[in-house]
Amino acid sequence: MANAKKNNTPDPVATLAEARAQLADAHSLLAKREDEFAQVEDAGIALKQRLQQGDDSVTALELATGDLAVERAKLLIGAARKAVQAAERAADLAEAQAYPTLAQWLHEIVKDNVFEFGLFGFPISVVPQLPAEPAVPAVYLFQSEATRADLSTGILAGSVHMSVVVPEGAPFDGNMVRNALARLIDQKGIARVEANLSQHNNGCQLRIKLSDVKPEIPVISPEVPSSNKIAEVAFKVSEAMVIGGGQRTVQDRWVGNMMTGMNAGVGAIVNNIHVYVPSHELVSQTRDGDLLRRIVQADFEVSGYYGLEVLADRTSETVAKQAGVFVSGVGRVESAKVTSVELVPGDKARRIKEVAKVKATFVLLSRAAA
Questions:
Q1: Which among 46, 172, 212, 363 is least buried, having the fewest CB atoms inside 10 angstroms?
Q2: Longest dimension (CA), the chain
């Protein structure tokens, strides 16, 4: 019976653990070298002070030895710092290969839009690094730098390498990929994209810089979000009503009162529709493993010249459409619904506007940062 072929590919997670251990050792060595330098520097200063005070028992050999010890310690510190920098680069690469978050994120977009990218029929895979002998045809996505994650917002940034391999001499225009990246990601506001293209006779390579990436379920600090971040949940509704209602004429946002330091709400005005949020609050925050679920409640007061029922319906529709919306620092909206509507008639004699009072509840999901 033939022996099974061994898999000699290193485990990226094990490689990352080893790289982190080596980085910790490098930092420990640097701290040791810095302590050694401080000791020999203090000893050299003490020798010179004794000489300045007239102590002729200090020999020239002691003085020279002290100076050379300081120089030796400086050189050792420099070597230790370079070792730390090399270990940081190795750990960063190992983390990128073990957890290629952005490559996996981009993989889903490319896989779901193969015609747009001109990649129909191409196997598309995320790999730790480009294989020495790539398959033909194939698309490989990989990272050489760890993903940068802002745990206060849940937004990601970094770069992804994309290698498209075709039979040598076969025509393939990498601009199709670059244009699809711009059209499907950048122009839709999913993330900001900058792609550098290198075309060759058996395909192309792209280095894709990504910023302001909003993942499906963001990883956010588990602390309770600030009132300003919670206000963003409500402002997304008023902002959407501005966009849905036509040309924006005036838009106001209130996130704090400079006199009292208290939050005052958010609002927007478009044409003859006024949306004001007198209150918004985080009702609850629960955790199931690393999954965080936040429930936010907001009150909307909508007035204008379209009739109260029309205004209430428009607000309800806008609230429902918030499902799937990303809110920085809070999460992605899992569901949104109106829980109550009150139509308050106006009084022209008393100059009181009619207003539709709408209360809504939003459920947002995120993952808790470790």
A1: 46
A2: 103
Q: Are residues 331 and 267 in the same domain?
A: yes
Q: Establish if 6 belongs to a structural domain.
A: no
With 0-12 / 13-18 / 19 or more C-beta atoms within 10 angstroms meaning exposed / middle / buried, residue 168 is: exposed
At residue 63, φ and ψ (nearest 5 deg) are -65, -45
Does 50 share its domain with 178?
A: no
Between CA 324 and CA 336 the distance in angstroms is 9
The C-alpha atoms of residue 21 and residue 52 are separated, in whole angstroms, by 47
Assess whether the previous peptide bond of 123 is cis (omega < 30° from 0): no
Give the CATH number, domain containing residue 239.
3.30.2000.30
pLDDT over 90 (residue 30): yes
Same-domain status, 229 and 354: yes
Q: Where are the alpha helices (DSSP H) in the chain?
A: 12-52, 60-98, 101-111, 114-117, 175-181, 227-245, 308-320
* Segments forming the whole domain that contains residue 165: 101-213
The pLDDT value given to residue 321:
93
Same domain, 106 and 75: no
Task: State residue 94's pLDDT score.
Answer: 95
CB 360 within 8 A of CB 335: no
pTM, 2 dp:
0.79
Residues in the chain: 370
Question: What is the pLDDT at residue 350?
Answer: 54
Q: Are residues 240 and 363 in the same domain?
A: yes
User: Exposed, middle or buried by CB within 10 Å (0-12, 13-18, 19+), for 148?
Assistant: middle
Nearest to 326 by CA among 162, 150, 179: 150
